[in-house]
Amino acid sequence: MRSRFRSDRRLTARMGITLFLLGLLYVGFVAALIVLLKSWVLVVVLAAVLLGAQYWFSDRIALFAMHGRVVEREEYPELHAVVDRLCAMADMPRPVVAVSDMDMPNAFATGRNADNAVVCVTTGLLRRLEPAELEGVLAHELSHVAHKDVAVITVASFLGVIAGLVVRFAFYSQLFGGRGRKDQNTVAVFAAVIGVSAAVYALSYLLIRALSRYRELAADRAAALLTGRPSALAAALTKVSGDIARIPSKDLRTAQAFNAFYFTPATGSGSGFERIFSTHPTLEQRLEQLGRISAELGEAAAPGKAD
What we know:
Elements: H1 9-37, H2 40-65, E1 68-70, H3 77-90, E2 96-100, E3 107-110, E4 118-122, H4 123-128, H5 131-146, H6 149-176, H7 184-227, H8 230-244, H9 253-256, H10 283-297
Parallel strand pairs: 2-4
Antiparallel strand pairs: 1-2, 3-4
Helix pairs in contact: 1-2, 1-6, 1-7, 2-6, 3-5, 5-7, 5-8, 6-7, 7-8, 7-10, 8-10
């Protein structure tokens, strides 16, 4: 079912290209592991189980990791009201609404499709944002669901996850397995497995982050056009980014693993060469785009005029 969120052909094309390239990388990775480990059954079964678990249970895994819980309408009536209004405007299924008891102001969407989606906000976000700003953030997250890039980024990240697990397994097996009992051939196989897995992880890491940065700009654009108030979204971005910078680093460690799913990253987007490894475009890029949309819509671009 198509929603009223404006379609983004460039985002669709980028998702297709990323999945195609990751698919080729995945086939080569599995083939290399089968040759090195000489057990195609083990490799294929392990890959299938991990992919299935990540695809079917990604929403539960994300909620558990971020201490989120599903909340009923009676508990958070205003939050549910905003989600209801946006879903009606976008003509899309209503997701499950969840709240994470964290001071870090943020939000994320997860789930394999629009009928099984979850939108979660932190209590820190609810305390800090005005109603119009919250609406902009939630529209941003709902656009991820409508454009299906939540499911794509979940599947795409699978390859990096399994490559990372293989590296760790091989490393600890070599470390604690008793080096003196291993012949040179076994050591060479372990080294090859670690090398191939590390290369696959690095390539998938860069591909996923390139897609992630574009999908955030696409979500900002779609949310601004749906609500008609890009300045409110700009105000939310400015406020949340500034407040996250003041959160103690130790409180952001858990959140960093889910940066690609967040409204704003738990760590900065960096500058120059560091941007290649960032999951999000810079705040300046996002505000510049919203400013252009605001001008096109004839709305005052100043965040303070969002009301």
